[in-house]
Specification:
By secondary structure, this protein is mostly beta strands. About 0% of the residues lie in helices and about 45% in strands.
Length: about 725
């Protein structure tokens, strides 16, 4: 059956990711900022508290007792207006030169952890071991003061372990990386710089004790396992950016890198469940230089990786990140490779990264940025990706800081917490006003999810003939929406306004084959957004098509039923026809509202020609053309008392000879052949009632007529 409706609508889709934007809300620097402090070397947020390390800072909490690169950390608290204020500077109780306290920090609720990987003293006055490393635990007391409550060290501490080069906390579990530690989990089988990580839990007395040491199942020398770590409620991930072998340990590529995922078993031990590597791994990619795990997703940075997401377009050390997902079978499978939209040499995309919910944040630490004064080398940039309905992580925003400058290294640390992103720039020089430059003093920037009344996005139209369905992405904080629209070509005074509570609307009463424009705005509690971009659509048009597939059934000597396919938009039909031949000057017209019509009062043994027209009152073209002509013959009425005559034509359809046989015919018989327009093509008188005739006719339908003095026979024949 033919489709009788012509679709002429054009729908314009405004493509965008359904994600709100982040805007810079504040820049912070420490109250005692100084030369080469590297404020921002470490950073973490929990609720309304942020901790930021300055690992090369020299003075104690009172600004006294200078010790070169002893390090410090600063606690900031967010007030009810969303402003962050410095509330405390913390230092190690046994601070020492080159301890690098603050190189890495972590915080969860009222517990903070600060790493000092250069510290040489343990918690109990043991032997000095250069760069053995230590971590310090702080608790916020009832007065809001952060007090050091414990110093923790590895049970098997040794020289140059770099214990606490990374620290993380989840609940009460503290995870510490030691990238240059040599022994396995049992403190034997040394392999230089193989690396390890340590897990601490508080005992019944509230004292954190080492409960487990974890290492890679295929540990090798110089893997630097523990150079990056992350912990969630159910998983730990540890990067080994100089590991050489793939996930099954078969193909060696120097410093390609790997990451190891651990999960807690029923006995409470953390067991390795997966080793992940890049699907396009190459030498010196340094996959595992940064890691993060959250829920069912793990994100791994490879700062020295050179190719785009398709493995093409080599750019030296542009950097990339790889997303893995924990599937329904508990397997960690590669999901997507993520790169910056613009890649340049040594951008180190993937230097710092974070996942929370549907959002991922990834920095390009040495990205060169454009400004009015030219290119700013190593200014740094941060990219935000959102997971869409197709489970794809798509770029939604790029972040730069307000006082961007060369060598800022914006993106040293990226931390996402709820609607807040904190980004550190530990080599940035200026104060909060962008003045008073101090080389590499460092700073941090807060970006807040823009919860202002945002305009709706991703407008969609699904038009029909006299109606359309409209939809759009919901906007956070919107209590309702106002649509406005009009026909294209009319001015704004012709707008129709409609208020709705949901991000959708069905509109009726439109005109067919007409183009419209529409916009929508968000209505929030205190204000309204601007109207969205314009979307346009064109309604469909009913085409009053000619009826098709004409046929005739229930033929008798005096009646027949005429049939045809219905026309969807037709309200009635006009039939016209004539007897014997198609005579346009002597046509009979009848009407019907159905796609069939029973006609009576016909003559027996007579050929009729007919066609039909549709009438569509609700269409721009209300009357169709007439259909093609259909021909039929009523049954003959036999004149002999012993029964009616009969005629057979076979084979029918035929591609060669046909045999015509007739009975009860008296006297001479005339053979007539007509085409479907009623034109006589052939005539011959015959004396035999059995005629074998070779006809030369083109393919088509023909009416065979045999006429004698007492009877007439008709038969429709198809020639193939």
């Amino acid at each position: 059956m033919r489709i009788l409706i012509s679709i002429v609508a054009t729908v314009l889709f405004h493509l965008s990711i359904n994600a709100q934007s982040y805007i810079q809300s504040q820049k912070i620097v420490p109250s005692d900022r100084g030369f080469v402090d590297f404020f921002g070397s470490g950073g973490a947020i929990s609720g309304d508290y942020a901790i930021i390390g300055a690992y090369r800072e020299d003075e104690d909490e009172n600004g006294l007792n200078t010790l070169s690169s002893a390090g410090s950390a600063y606690i900031f608290e967010r007030d009810t207006n969303g402003i962050w204020h410095e509330v405390q500077k913390i230092v190690a109780s046994d601070r020492a030169k080159n301890a690098f306290f603050g190189w890495n920090v972590a915080i969860d609720s009222n517990i903070a952890v600060v790493g000092a990987f250069g510290d040489e003293n343990d918690a109990f006055g043991g032997p000095k071991l250069g760069r053995a490393g230590s971590a310090y635990v702080y608790r916020r007391d009832i007065n809001g003061v952060w007090q050091e409550i414990q110093k923790i060290n590895a049970a098997d501490r040794e020289f140059s372990d770099d214990f606490a080069v990374r620290v993380e906390i989840c609940g009460t579990t503290i995870l510490v990386g030691a990238q240059r530690e040599d022994e396995n989990e049992n403190a034997v089988s040394p392999l230089t710089d193989a690396g390890s990580a340590y897990i601490f839990e508080p005992n019944a007395s509230g004292v954190w004790t080492q409960v487990q040491k974890i290492v890679a199942s295929d540990r090798r020398a110089h893997d630097f396992f523990g150079t990056s770590i992350s912990i969630s409620e159910h998983n730990i991930i540890v990067g080994a950016y100089r590991q050489d072998y793939d996930s099954v340990g078969s193909v060696k590529l120097d410093d390609a890198g790997a990451a190891y995922i651990f999960a807690k078993d029923s006995s409470g031990l953390w067991m390795e469940t997966a080793k992940v590597t890049a699907p396009d791994r190459e030498e010196e990619d340094r996959f595992g230089s940064s890691v993060f795990v959250s829920g069912n997703y793990a994100l791994v940075g490879a700062v020295s990786e050179d190719h785009d997401e398709n493995g093409a377009n080599f750019v030296l050390s542009a950097g990339s990140a790889y997303m893995f997902e924990n599937n329904a079978f508990g397997e960690w499978v590669f999901m997507k490779k993520i790169v910056a939209p613009i890649r340049n040499t040594s951008d180190l995309f993937g230097a710092s990264l974070w996942i929370e919910g549907e959002t991922a944040v990834i920095s390009a630490l040495y990205s060169d940025e454009q400004s009015d004064s030219g290119v700013l080398i190593d200014a740094g940039a941060v990219y935000i990706y959102n997971r869409d309905d197709q489970n794809d992580w798509a770029l939604s925003q790029k972040l730069n800081h307000s006082d961007i400058d060369a060598d800022d290294q914006f993106g040293w640390k990226c931390i996402l917490s709820g609607e807040t992103i904190m980004i550190t720039a530990n080599e940035e020089n200026d104060d909060v006003s962008g003045q008073n430059s101090i080389a590499e003093a460092g700073s941090a920037y807060f970006f807040q999810l823009d919860n202002s009344c945002l305009e709706p996005s991703v407008l969609n139209s699904d038009p029909s003939f006299e109606s359309t369905s409209l939809s759009w992405e919901s906007a956070t904080n919107a209590l309702g929406y106002t649509l406005r629209g009009t026909k294209l070509g009319l001015d704004s005074n012709s707008y129709t306004y409609i208020n709705v509570s949901q991000p959708m609307l069905n509109v009726s009463g439109l005109e067919q084959a007409s183009s419209y424009l529409w916009q929508v705005r968000s209505n929030c509690s205190e204000t309204n957004s601007a109207y969205s971009q314009i979307d346009t659509f064109t309604t469909l048009e009913y085409l009053c098509s000619s009826p098709q597939n004409l046929s005739v059934t229930a033929i008798t000597e005096t009646s027949a039923q005429l049939n045809w396919d219905p026309v969807p938009s037709a309200v009635n039909y006009v039939i016209r026809g004539s007897a014997n031949v198609y005579d346009k000057n002597n046509l009979v017209f009848v009407t019907t509202t159905n796609n069939f019509k029973s006609v009576g009062g016909l003559s027996a043994g007579t050929v009729y020609h007919w066609q039909v027209q549709a009438v569509c009152n609700n269409s721009p073209t209300p009357v169709s053309a007439f259909s093609s002509i259909n021909v039929f013959a009523t049954n003959a009425l036999a004149l002999k008392e012993n029964g009616a005559g009969a005629m057979n034509v076979f084979p029918n359809p035929s591609s060669s000879d046909i045999l015509i046989q007739a009975t009860f015919m008296e006297g001479p018989v005339q053979l007539n052949i007509y085409d479907m327009l009623g034109q006589k093509l052939y005539q011959e008188e015959m004396n035999s009632t059995i005629v074998d005739k070779n006809l030369t006719l083109p393919s088509g339908s023909y009416l065979i007529e045999l006429v004698s003095i007492n009877i007439a026979h008709h038969k429709l024949v198809i020639i193939e």
